[in-house]
Amino acid sequence: MPAPAPRKNHKVLGRLSLPERTFVADALRTETVGGVLLLAAAIAALIWANTPIRESYESVRDFHVGPASLGLDLSIEHWAADGLLAVFFFVAGIELKRELVAGDLRDPRAAALPVVAALSGMAVPALVYTLVNVTGGGSFDGWAVPTATDIAFALAVLAVIGTSLPNSLRAFLLTLAVVDDLFAILIIAVFFTENLNFAALGGAAVGLAVFWLLLRRGVRGWYVYVPLALVIWGLMYNSGVHATIAGVAMGLMLRCTTRKDEGEQRSPGERIEHLVRPLSAGLAVPLFALFSAGVAVSGGALGEVFTRPETLGVVLGLVVGKAVGIFGGTWLTARFTRASLSDDLAWPDVFAVSSLAGIGFTVSLLIGELAFAGDKALTDEVKAAVLMGSLIAAVLSGVLLKIRNAKYRRLWEDEERDEDLDGIPDIYEQDNPAYHLRMAEIHERKAAEHRRLAEVTGGASEGNDGPA
What we know:
Layout: H1 18-28, H2 31-49, H3 54-62, E1 64-65, E2 74-75, H4 76-102, H5 108-136, H6 151-161, H7 167-191, H8 198-216, H9 222-239, H10 244-253, H11 268-292, H12 299-305, H13 309-336, H14 347-356, H15 361-371, H16 376-416, H17 433-456
Antiparallel strand pairs: 1-2
Helix pairs in contact: 1-11, 2-6, 2-11, 4-7, 4-10, 4-11, 5-7, 5-13, 6-7, 6-16, 8-9, 8-10, 9-10, 12-16, 13-14, 13-16, 14-16, 15-16
């Protein structure tokens, strides 16, 4: 009788096997999982900061660690905001580079709608915040807080609710969010940089030049780039420019086009993003949320969110400003230029996504910390306003997306129905009344598009269905 096989010990929280590690990494690359982790971290922070053990939260958050001689004796909260978020912005930089060289932003005509929508979606919330604080006598320092969109949260909501929505809606939101990230980075670099250390800034510039040169020479190996990236980040932090800019700069330097003649299947940018995204979605962003979203919340505090001009401006900027700005900018661009909305989308879809962009969680929290750095109480109130505004925007957009998703699901079911089992969907059979209705809808849509193009181009000759 053969001896029984030895029982394999399984360590709790031990190192995962390769298949398990691959599964976890692939899961973290999906918007749904990343958004759920971000939400879980925010909820954990709120619970931790509003229970009898809140003193331990403050102790951990304010604990300092790091080499003081290098100017990096930072609190855990600052390490999360300045250090870990650099990983998030590194991935954002790669996404932006890919959109610029191989995505919608490469073609100016295709980029017009999402670019104008993103700009309008930042300008209108800033205007809403400013108007609220002009009338209420509040501080203008937080004008940039409601201008940002949290791409992870927004895409996660869209992935969960919009299972039957057109793919072009996700592409529109992704391009919109990438442009939004770019301008949020510019806002941080321009408006939240006060005292510059030119020696450290020059050192960071030299480090970035070396990083770029190594990439162009085709040098490979994480042991080369990771230490260099840490040096660049440290110099950027000490220069006075927000350290996350270093992550964006390095992400933009990566090549995001494939060399078919060399047999490349994926560009270096795609490969590195594939490796780094789980670190960003599974560690960097959730830890930032954990140590930034922990604000004391009570009935009185929530009431103040809607009475104090700074916090009310943030909430209205996210909920109203984002929806009006993005939808209005998209409609005006499609109305008065040659840019057009995708044939797969309708204007109610655009409004639902515009409302979804009001989820400004991660970057809005970061800008809130920078805008009111000298006032801890107001910083916490603004953070509460960001959480409240993002929650309202998520609920409203969720309802709208659910309605639109139900409509598209019904259309899909109608188009796939084959009651006579002849292998041809009933809607495409000539004797089915639904066929004629569907064809009439298609013709009407084409005619409306031609009329719109005729108006933009100054009118079409009589009898002409539109431009060739």
